[in-house]
Amino acid sequence: MSINELPPNNIVCIALYLDPKDILEFSLSSKSYCRAILENEDFWKSKTLHDFGDIFHLYQLFTSSTGLDLAGDLSKKFKQEPDSWRHYYKIKQSSINQADDDVLVDQANKEYKDSRKYLSTFQDDMNYSVLAQVASKMFWILDMFPSHAGCYYILGFILFTMNRLEDALDILDMGRAVEPTFEPFDELESEILSIMQGYKGGAGDLPLLINDNLTPELLKVLFEIFHRFDKDHDDCLSPEELDLFVFSTNGQHPPASFIEQMGTRFGANEQGWLTKKGFLAFYLEQTLDDPSETKKDIRAHGYDCSQLRKKTV
């Protein structure tokens, strides 16, 4: 069988692995090839995702999962897919060719290393504005260097720190598509899977409850978390403090009604702010109902949810 007798789908698969110049020559060799490749938007979308990764899906997954406000230019670039994939591919290919020099590569690698250092201490200061800056830098790098595996690792790690474990695994899989041998992917995935298994409980786990009361070990963890967010040390969480606590725990800002109801239901001061006793009452109710949720919460704040102690990086 000659190549001219191959089905169109096979022709498209072959073209996915060709350089743009070869694609043009290949397409112009016959009218059917031109229709199947050069004039086919589906082909150019597949070619774009094959060569550069699906940064549009990556952006949507990351922003919807974390709720972080990334740099405005990223939204303009990646919030919606392009109207013409062929035109997008041509511009993308040109910009990458121009950017492929040692200076920019060194700068990208430095940003990656600096980001890893920052993330190792993030859970101590909970500075989400810096976290958004780190994520924005990773998308900027991927826009120019789509095969930079370290950027996928950083974005996955950010989701990991924000307790978005399933989404973190999805991003690691996307990273493996561009660099299957990048070892940090395996290390982070192993830790995530271990944590997900730990939510179900194991023989060596410290208990969260004794006689339907919070254990001393869990109380110590909750006290430490509470005082981290009680910035004015008044043993209450103001609406702003409680909002930051909730966002730090699950990546979502709660509605005002939730803030008010927390104090009303579990215990509030004269201003309606959630008290320390109310904070503990909430966690007692949640732990009695679903211990795995409490484990997820304390893990999001940097604690080993099996041994109930601060994790060391």
Largest sheet: 2 strands, antiparallel
Beta strands, count: 6
What proportion of the residues is helical, as a percent range? 55-70%
Number of helices: 18
Strand content: under 5%
Write out the strand line-up for the largest beta sheet, numbering strands in chain order: 1-2
N/C terminus separation: 59 Å
Cα radius of gyration in angstroms: 25 Å
Apparent shape: elongated
Structural class: mainly alpha
Elements, N to C (H/E):
HHHHHHHHHHHHHEEHEHHEHHEE
Unreliable segments of 5+ consecutive residues = none
Average per-residue pLDDT, rounded, comes to 88
Task: Supply database-style keywords.
313 residues; mainly alpha; two-stranded antiparallel sheet; 18 helices; elongated
List the helices and strands and how they pair.
Blueprint: H1 8-16, H2 20-27, H3 31-38, H4 41-52, H5 55-66, H6 72-78, H7 85-99, H8 102-119, H9 122-125, H10 128-144, H11 149-161, H12 165-178, H13 183-198, E1 209-210, E2 213-214, H14 216-229, E3 236-237, H15 239-250, H16 256-266, E4 274-275, H17 276-289, H18 291-300, E5 303-304, E6 309-310
Antiparallel strand pairs: 1-2, 3-4, 5-6
Helix pairs in contact: 1-3, 2-3, 4-7, 5-6, 8-10, 8-11, 10-11, 11-12, 11-13, 12-13, 16-17, 17-18
Provide structural commentary.
It is a single chain. With 313 residues, this protein is mostly helical. Helix content is 68%, strand content 4%. Strands 1-2 form a two-stranded antiparallel sheet. Strands 3-4 form a two-stranded antiparallel sheet. The termini are far apart.
